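Subject: Sanity check before I submit

Could someone independently write out the structure tokens for this chain? I want to compare against mine line by line before I put it in a report. The sequence has 238 residues.
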Amino acid sequence: MKTIVHRAGSRGHANHGWLQTWHTFSFANYYNPDRVHFGALRVLNDDIIQPAMGFGTHPHDNMEIITIIIKGALEHKDSMDNGSLIREGEVQVMSAGNGVYHSEFNPSGSEEVNLLQIWVFPDTQNVEPRYDQALFQEETMNGKWKNIVSPDGNDGSLWIHQQAWFSLGEFAGNEKVVYRLHKPENGLYLFVIEGEVDIAGQRLDRRDGIGIFDPDQEISIFSREKAKLLVIEVPVRF
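---
Independent answer below. Compare away.
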């Protein structure tokens, strides 16, 4: 088992005034040759968008894009004629496929929106673009993992074009939890949204991340305090 730790303070950071953004992996003007991707996981951005501001219409292709709203709400519009509001607790997926344009905007006049935007390399190129979103209630992840993204969506999760699984969990302090891999050849990336945990011999704080290559089938995590965690299970050789 090999691990790589990304401390919150070591992430790339940009302050655009209307946008504060932290990049776990190389993105935009932040480039670190040691942090380009973790297997199929290409982007993990932690964004805070000011009221009445946002990203204008811009293109994407051949990428699976997952957006998790931590606080606030985000307005989405795209070239597939989708127009929606994504609220706290909701998750959005968009398969950019052979090309899509979209915009993202904070519709509030007074509150920031904080979101995680995550990109995953697809396992199939040039698919027809698609969009979906869903609300995942907090009680479904209290003390356990709630699968929010998968390759098939059979368990009520949102599906993407990759053998990848995203799970959220909220755990009390002084609690041991186990994550079980769906595919033994996958790697695991854990991101601490809130709290403090021990995993694979490392102590992680808020917004720290750890990538685990060739993990055991079961990974033990100890929450030192109340914690909200995101686990991203992805192919590391593809």
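---
OP: Matches mine. For the report I'm noting this point. Residues 26 and 36 are 5 Å apart (CA to CA).
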